[in-house]
Design a protein that fits this description.
This protein is α+β, with helices and mostly antiparallel strands and about 475 residues long. It folds into 3 domains: about 130 residues, Beta Barrel (conserved putative lor/sdh protein from methanococcus maripaludis s2 fold); about 90 residues, Elongation Factor Tu (Ef-tu), domain 3, CATH 2.40.30; about 220 residues, no CATH class. The chain contains 7 helices and 25 strands. A hairpin with a 5-residue loop joins β21 and β22.
């Protein structure tokens, strides 16, 4: 509908038909229509808020009739406001919890007995011990690949070897030169003097340390990859190798292996560095690294709590750890989380009324029942983690309930008026009354914080419209 003169929705009043003319005359004749129009602003606005925003607004409107109705509906105060041009953002405010983010559980490997655990609240960095098994320290190393095999044989190649090499170098050990991408090595071959006595070590695997043949050394690449040069696998497919303790992947790695960019190589220099590192840790300097000897993490962690006590077996959940930086976790409805994107700017309302700028750091990949009591019973929620742009803003708080404002939709450079200026039209839709009394139809857009986006004939920046106070 384009702009122009339109008629407002008639007001239904509890006045007998024969008294309508008299009532209008008493109210001032030609001036009665604007008053009737303003009288229904209150109802139109309440309906508008419910229709446009879907907000759960409770409107109390007891029905009355006759003279009682006239007395119960006093003339609302009106005023004029300017149509302004601005950016409009619809925000959703959800309850959150300030802490250190979502915790995860660290598991032990192999046999052994837990003899010490890092205390709750402790920050553990690269090279520092998280726990002790059979009184041997298990330090934290940084990386993306866990220790999944024994690293013992010379020229063993893989991403797990790269984790050992990178961390020892970062800890100040001279590991010598590492072969670069595209180079080839022949191996693996178990070097002399690298055997570990059977059944020793934090992992307690009970396996022999191996022989010079290195058949249990776990050399070569992980099972997901094979020789990059396409060479046939020695001993496979012809029934010539029936050693049940030697996997086909280990056999395939006994020939030339081409180094990839993410690979490390267990060179003699690296094995010597491992021995020096083991000496500093106070464990036998064998040069062998078992899966349970280290805990590979993404970075430094904060110990939230223990899953076991000293004296318990070490082959299960041991510690709960979190990131070291404070963050806010928010449960967002599974049906609404699609509107949230990693990196979105948000505002955190802190206890005491202060606010802090933050952004969405991560979005959970699984939905579950709410842990915060938000949402409808049985509604699935997804955990969203929010990180502060300036962590010092929450340096004095370890945990607290907070509120997080998400901007779910935005409009830039649009004309807006207060919601209370909208009038419901008889023809459908909404209109605005200009300061001179002209009523024009408008198209509405985003609604946020009591303001509504509008456009229509005669609606320009600076124009004045009538609104209820």
């Amino acid at each position: 509908m384009t702009g122009g003169e339109t008629q407002p929705t008639p007001v239904v009043e509890a006045v007998p038909d024969g008294d309508v003319a008299a009532a209008e005359s008493a109210r001032g004749g030609a001036h009665a229509a604007p008053r009737r129009r303003r009288r229904r602003i209150r109802t139109a606005v309440a309906l508008t808020v419910l229709t446009l925003t879907g907000a759960g607004v409770a409107v109390s409107a007891p029905w009355r009739s006759g003279a009682d109705a006239a007395q119960a509906e006093p003339e609302p105060d009106t005023r004029t406001v300017e149509v302004v041009r601005t950016d409009l953002t619809d925000t959703r405010t959800l309850d959150g919890v300030l802490g250190y983010g979502t915790s995860r559980t660290l598991n032990g490997a192999g046999n052994g007995t837990v003899t010490w655990l890092a205390a709750s609240g402790t920050t553990v960095s690269r090279g520092e011990s998280l726990y002790r098994v059979d009184d041997r320290p298990v330090p934290a190393l940084y990386g993306d690949v866990p220790m999944y095999r024994r690293l013992q044989a010379l020229n063993t190649v893989g991403r797990d070897v790269r984790v050992i090499a990178d961390n020892l170098r970062a800890l100040g050990y001279d590991i010598g030169r590492q072969p670069g991408p595209g180079e080839t090595v022949t191996g693996p071959v178990a070097p002399m003097g690298t055997e570990r006595p059977s059944g020793t070590g934090p992992s307690g695997t009970g396996q022999d340390g191996g022989s010079a043949g290195g058949t249990d050394a776990g050399g070569g690449r992980p099972p997901s990859s094979g020789p990059s040069d396409g060479a046939p696998r020695p001993g496979s497919g012809d029934g010539g190798d029936t050693d049940s303790d030697t996997s086909s992947e280990q056999r395939s790695a006994t020939g030339p292996i081409r180094i990839r960019s993410e690979d490390g190589v267990l060179t003699r220099s690296l094995i010597d560095a491992v021995k020096r590192w083991q000496t500093k840790l106070g464990v036998p300097a064998t040069g062998v690294v078992e899966p349970g000897d280290v805990a590979v993490l993404k970075g430094a962690v904060r110990v939230e709590g223990a899953e076991v006590q000293t004296g318990d077996p070490a082959d299960g959940p041991l510690l709960r750890v979190t990131p070291t930086s404070k963050a806010v976790t928010v449960d967002v409805g599974a049906s609404e989380v699609g509107a949230v994107k990693k990196g979105d700017a948000v505002t955190v309302r802190l206890p005491g009324g202060e606010s802090a700028a933050a952004e969405v750091a991560s979005i959970g990949s699984s939905a579950r029942s709410s842990s915060s009591g938000q949402g409808l019973p049985g509604e699935l929620r997804v955990t969203v983690t929010v990180a502060f742009k300036d962590p010092s803003r929450v340096s004095g708080l370890n945990s607290a309930p907070v509120q997080v404002e998400f901007g779910s939709e935005s409009r830039s450079d649009v004309l807006v008026v207060p919601l209370t200026a909208l009038l419901a039209l008889r023809e459908g839709g909404y209109g605005l009354e200009l300061a001179g009394g002209r009523l024009v139809a408008v198209e509405t857009g985003l609604v946020a914080r009591g303001m509504v986006e509008v456009s229509g004939d005669g609606i320009t920046e600076g124009a004045r419209v009538v609104t209820a106070s």
